[in-house]
Amino acid sequence: MEHARATAIARSLRKRDTWAEKLLWSWLRDRRFSAYKFRRQHSFGSHILDFFCVEAFLDIELDGMQHGRPDKQKADAERDAWLEARGVKVLRFWNSRLRRERNVILETIWQALQARAPRPLPDYCRPLATASDGNQPRWAR
Known about the structure:
A hairpin with a 2-residue loop joins strand 1 (39-44) and strand 2. This protein has a four-stranded mixed β-sheet, sandwiched between helices. The longest helix has 16 residues, at 70-85. The chain is of the alpha+beta class. It is globular. The protein is built from five helices and four strands; from the N terminus they run H-H-E-E-E-H-E-H-H. It has one domain (3-125): Endonuclease, Chain A.
């Protein structure tokens, strides 16, 4: 797929987000997820990736019920193998899991990001230090 065509398709897809894409994007956009930058509907070779983190070379794909068909599953497996051969880690989640398994999905994404492009935990995620002498900072570092 030529670059201009891929860009046009990606723009069109961004205008027609599913509820699941809107929900996941609300978690990932504006560096909200531990300051990792994600791109939505990012073209990579002849493919358009749902959510892509360049820093970690991580692709997050959301699958609706059409991905349950055997022909679509085969195509997805071939696509994922092509991406993984180029260093892109692919995570796939069913749309239906997003609401009921939010914490599991976020933890899976976090672990993949940390494995590929580690970052320290932000201060607001660190446990409180016991400041018995009054000189220790409030947050553990």
